[in-house]
Specification:
alpha/beta, Rossmann fold, seven-stranded parallel beta sheet, 10 helices, 11% strand, globular
Length: 305
Amino acid sequence: MDTNLNGKVAVVAGGTRGASRAIAVELGRAGATVYVTGRSSGTHRSEVDRPETIEDTVRLITEAGGTGIALRVDHLEPDQVRGLAARIDAEHGGLDILVDGIWGGDHLMEWAKPVWEHSLDASLRMIRLGIDAHIITSHVLLPLVIRKPGGLLIDLTDGTAEYNAKFREGSCLAYYLAKVNGNLLAMAQGHETKEYGTTAVAVTPGWLRSEAMLTHYGVTEQNWRDAAAKEPHFVISESPVFVGRGVAALAADPDRARYTGQTLSSFQLAQTYDIDDTDGSRPDAWRYIAEVEAAGKPADATGYR
């Protein structure tokens, strides 16, 4: 599919790392002007305390031949988001693509702890990051998106609606609520924006080889398969570029409104738009998780990549 976003203006909120970073890069590669926002900049680290910055993301966009603008914005602070909206309005008069990838709460999660044992402060912070920040961002920036027909809103999540209903065991209550929120936002905002010709969807990558995940397993993108010695099911993992390419193709699809209100996986996008991961594979992580990992079968990605 021809992915041409020349003349389009995008915001990738939380575009510092992971799927959001890759999406920002691929939107820029396709020709969009991309505003990359987040809390980790060259002068300030967020509570996540990782080295990736919004400026690094813009550098990658530039290397891909695109145009990126890094703006430090805490999306839990409405006035900061209003400042972002005012700048975009003044410079472009509207917004074509809004990708809400705000999170930064993995370090707060205590695996498999029930709500009464889990840190209450950490639980409430995850809710703030995964729900409140998304609502604030939509409240302030959606008026720029609905200004002209054909806008696109994407809320990043973790898991398809079906997966979240069946397999969210072993995490914690606040994480589950924060992530299932993406599925519900797609349905609700799809309804609210339909009359304006806006497409609102949730998008989930599979088992993502994010910067943090690679660090966790002590590998790089070049030798990631070595991590399978520690976690055999890591064989189904995917690079962030996989979902980035899918979102760029979705943004360029003139018929994307058929998906409004739905949750789309990176694999679904790949199948629809004939996209492969960087190694030429096409991982179907959520089917693998249901049919292999959750079923207690030995790791085997045959037929899922």
